[in-house]
């Protein structure tokens, strides 16, 4: 497996587990019955859990674009130092983004998001370069 696909796997796994802490908070706050049901007036989750939920949604939205570019690069046999670095930085940027979002660290969250976005742009440019 290429380094790019390995990082894609790590990004997907990170995205797959981000929901666990905020769901546990939902169960702790609302109880299991309301957590799995549709209460008419649900108790609010802790602020950190709401932020982690938002970070998870953002990770899912960005995973779609990142995964598409990594898979296209793999199919086109485009792999070089830039694509490997972009994938590595993307993984760490998404991890930092989730942590900074959860703990309400605004500048770090924004910089991590921007770093991940630049990695996606770098992948796209590697694909479109002659």
Tally of extended strands? 0
- Proportion of β residues? under 5%
Q: Going by CATH, what is the homologous superfamily?
A: Membrane associated eicosanoid/glutathione metabolism-like domain
Nearest-angstrom radius of gyration?
17 Å
Global mean pLDDT = 96
Give the helix level as a range of percent. Answer: over 70%
CATH top level is Mainly Alpha
Specify the CATH architecture: Up-down Bundle
* Overall 3D shape: elongated
- C-alpha termini separation: 25 Å
- CATH topology value: Four Helix Bundle (Hemerythrin (Met), subunit A)
What is the count of structural domains? 1
Helix run count: 6
The ordered H/E elements are HHHHHH
Structural class determined from secondary elements:
mainly alpha
Poorly predicted spans: none
The major pleated sheet works out as: none
Mind explaining what this structure looks like?
The structure is a single chain. With 130 residues, the chain is mainly α. It has a single domain, classed as Four Helix Bundle (Hemerythrin (Met), subunit A), CATH 1.20.120. The protein is built from six helices and no strands. The longest helix has 29 residues. It starts with a helix and ends with a helix. The model has no long low-confidence stretch (mean pLDDT 96).
Could you give a short description of this structure?
The protein has 130 residues and is an all-alpha fold. 82% of the residues lie in helices and 0% in strands. It has six helices and no strands.
Please name the defining characteristics of this protein:
single chain; 130 residues; mainly alpha; Four Helix Bundle (Hemerythrin (Met), subunit A); 6 helices; 0% strand
């Amino acid at each position: 497996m290429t380094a790019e696909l390995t990082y894609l796997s790590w990004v997907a796994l990170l995205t797959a587990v981000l929901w666990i802490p905020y769901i546990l908070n939902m169960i702790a706050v609302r109880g299991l019955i309301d957590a799995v049901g549709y209460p008419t007036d649900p108790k609010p989750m802790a602020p950190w859990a709401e932020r982690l939920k938002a970070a998870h949604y953002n990770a899912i939205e960005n995973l779609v674009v990142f995964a598409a570019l990594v898979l296209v690069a793999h199919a086109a046999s485009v792999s070089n130092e830039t694509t490997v670095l972009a994938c590595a930085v993307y993984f760490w940027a998404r991890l930092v983004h989730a942590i900074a979002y959860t703990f309400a660290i605004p500048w770090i969250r924004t910089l991590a998001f921007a770093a991940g976005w630049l990695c996606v742009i770098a992948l796209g440019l590697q694909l479109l370069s002659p």
